[in-house]
Every structure is written in C-alpha cells, then in structure tokens.
Design brief:
The protein has 233 residues and is an alpha+beta fold. It has helices at 86-99, 126-140, 167-170, 201-231, and strands at residues 18-22, 30-36, 39-50, 63-70, 111-121, 149-157, 160-163, 176-184, 190-193, 196-197. It is built from four helices and ten strands, in the order E-E-E-E-H-E-H-E-E-H-E-E-E-H.
C-alpha cells in the first residue's frame, strides 16, 4: 500500500466535516442545506402538485422527479456549462432511483413532487451530498417516507480503502476507485451503488463495510437537523 497518508490529513475512515440545516428556502414546501467538506448542496421540494402534461400522470400514485445542477463556477476543474447536460441528467435519475424506495406517494395520484438540488461549490461527492440534502428536504416538506436515505462515497486510493474521497484523491496519480453509496437507515437497503475506477473484490467488501459506518454518521446529522427544525417551531 503506497498511499499511507491522506492528502488532507484525515484518517482513512474519517469523513470531511459535515453540516446541515432544514427549512432554509421560505417559498419551497421543504428545503435543506447539506455540506461535506467543500461540497455544498441546496435542496428544495415543491409539491405534491398536479402533473402536466397529463400523459405523464400515474393514476395509482404520485411521481418523484429530481433535478440536479452544478453552478457554472462551482467545480475544482474547468467552468461548467450552464443548463442541462448528460451528467446532470444521469445524476438526476440516480437521485430519483435512490429516493423512490422510501417515498410513499400512493396518496397523491396524478401528482408530482419535484426536488431541485443546486450545488454552488463542489469538491467531490456531489451526488451523495445531493441525495442526503434531498432526503432532509423531503422530510421537511412532510412527504410520507418509510425510512431515511443516507449517502456517502467510499473507495480505494493506491491500495488504501478510504471514506469520502476529496477531489485531490479522485485525481490522484495511481489506481483509484470512487464508489458512491446510498442506503436506507432502518432496512439497510442499498438504493445506490456505483463505481468509477478499479478495485479488488476484497477491497470492495472492505469499502462497503466502511460505507455502513460512514452512513450512520450522515444519518445522525440528518436526524439532528430535522429535530432542530421541528423543535424550533
């Protein structure tokens, strides 16, 4: 193992500093802010409201739609072109798939719940921050949820299994794998599992075990944020 010390000085199992807040956008039905390291996500929920055009409606239950967007100068690399692109569309779909297992929209036929996530600053782990923020915002909006979804990235950098890779680790000049994971807290159902890079089977198992421990930390922050939100009303 050549990677013996993380570029930002963290322990291998240590997450970047996290903070979160709910109810930050007054005109939204629910909203949240989630920050991990330098990656910041703002989520706003609107609905349930009638879905148009009508051919998209589901007469049995409501539809969850997610919209992911990074601001033009948010990234560590080059300027991001504004507007929709393939990556944003893919992450929007990934978010919806990660959240759908816990969201119960059976009481809202022909309706839609829209989740908009904007990232003004990013340093890796954007889809995970977006999912964690969206889950808080959905709860803040009072959308029926069977469980809470937490998300964090794990992976391997030059032979070392680590939690919550930063941008410098993703770009490290060695074999690197980045594995975004989302999981329901109570049932431990994996709702997102992707990977970019290379990793051995043994290290993948170690990374997923590390993800479970890391996700518990994300969940504790989500719960604390929602308790503070509703205890203040």
């Amino acid at each position: 193992m050549a990677y013996t010390k993380r570029v930002d000085g963290r322990k291998f199992d240590e997450l970047r500093p996290m903070e979160a807040k709910a109810g930050i956008i007054p005109n939204a039905d629910g909203s949240a802010y989630f920050k991990i390291g330098k990656t910041t996500a703002y989520a706003a929920v609107y609905g349930p409201r009638e879905l148009y055009p009508r051919f998209l409606q589901n007469p049995k239950k409501g539809v969850l739609r997610c919209h992911y967007s990074m601001m033009p100068f948010s990234g560590s690399g080059e300027r991001i072109r504004p507007g929709s692109n393939r990556r944003a569309q893919e992450i929007s779909m990934v978010m919806a798939n990660a959240l759908n297992p816990v969201v119960d929209l059976s009481a809202f036929p022909n309706a839609v719940v829209d989740v908009f996530v904007e990232l003004p600053q990013t340093d890796a782990g954007t889809r995970c921050a977006a999912i964690s923020a969206a889950a808080i915002a959905l709860a803040d909006a009072g959308i029926p949820m069977k469980d809470m979804v937490c998300s964090v990235a794990v992976g391997q950098v030059d032979g070392a299994v680590v939690a919550d890779l930063c941008y410098d680790e993703e770009a490290y000049d060695a074999i690197v794998s980045d594995i975004p994971v989302a999981m329901t807290h109570n049932s431990k159902e994996i709702t997102l599992l992707q990977m970019d890079g290379e990793i051995s089977k043994d290290d993948l198992i170690k990374a997923l075990e590390l993800a479970k421990v890391s996700l518990e930390q994300v969940y504790q922050l989500q719960q604390k944020t929602l308790r503070e939100r509703f205890s203040s009303e």
